């Protein structure tokens, strides 16, 4: 199966996918990496793995919708079976969702529907929850609102800072991402209402 991975940052989740794809039994290949900015470690990781990449910055386009079309066209060139947002910090628009909304997954560093948005660990810490985690879900038009594929829990420790909690989440988040992306592409899936099932 063909994966296109979208990134904005350090790319530890991307790296976990690249590593998993080394094993033919995993059943997937990262065929391209897309980003919304340059100068990020994710793009170096793609290059080191010999995977092509493309960058579309919102500010280089006159309107958000034109950026969205460019992103959609670049992703489409690689004919992905699944598009994975792995720390991609942009909300895609209607064109993208029209093209890939049935196969676009995102990983979030909190237990949705709690703490959506870009500060999942910080918000969980501030709220004072004792358990948080990571959620893999299909992206819809909202902010972290789509049908949930899988979740994993992580304890919040009394002396946690945003950094220590984020790192504890990322360790299990990577494993969940690799595990479930593999299952989705090897087994296929159905979505009935909000219920995601592998076949
Ligand atoms: C992940 O924890 C993701 O949930 C959040 O940003 C992190 C991405 O890290 N949105 P990386 O770029 O994969 O290292």
Automatic annotation (TrEMBL):
Keyword Transferase tagged: yes
Keyword Heme applies: no
Active site: 108
Site (Raises pKa of active site His) location in chain: 144
GO biological-process terms attached to the record: 'de novo' IMP biosynthetic process
InterPro entries linked to this entry: Formyl_transf_N (IPR002376), Formyl_transf_N_sf (IPR036477), GART (IPR004607)
Functional description taken from the UniProt entry: Catalyzes the transfer of a formyl group from 10-formyltetrahydrofolate to 5-phospho-ribosyl-glycinamide (GAR), producing 5-phospho-ribosyl-N-formylglycinamide (FGAR) and tetrahydrofolate.
Full protein name: Phosphoribosylglycinamide formyltransferase
Species, as recorded: Kribbella amoyensis
Lineage: Bacteria, Bacillati, Actinomycetota, Actinomycetes, Propionibacteriales
The gene coding this protein: purN
């Amino acid at each position: 199966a063909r994966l296109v991975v979208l990134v904005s940052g350090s790319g530890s989740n991307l790296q976990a996918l690249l590593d998993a794809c080394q094993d033919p039994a995993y059943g997937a290949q990262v065929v391209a990496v897309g980003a919304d900015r340059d100068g990020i470690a994710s793009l170096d990781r793609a290059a080191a793995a010999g995977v092509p990449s493309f960058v579309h910055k919102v500010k280089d386009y006159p309107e958000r919708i034109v950026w969205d079309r460019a992103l959609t066209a670049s992703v489409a060139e690689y004919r992905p079976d699944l598009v994975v947002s792995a720390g991609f910090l942009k909300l895609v628009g209607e064109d993208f969702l029209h093209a890939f909304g049935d196969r676009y997954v995102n990983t979030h560093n909190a237990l949705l529907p709690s703490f959506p948005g870009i500060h999942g660990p910080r918000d969980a810490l501030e709220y004072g929850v004792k358990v948080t985690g990571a959620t893999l879900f299909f992206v819809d038009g909202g902010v972290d609102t789509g049908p949930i594929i899988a979740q994993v829990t992580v304890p919040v420790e009394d002396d946690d800072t945003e950094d220590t909690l984020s790192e504890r989440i990322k360790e299990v988040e990577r494993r969940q991402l690799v595990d479930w992306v593999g299952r989705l592409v090897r087994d296929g899936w159905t979505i009935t209402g909000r219920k995601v099932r592998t076949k």
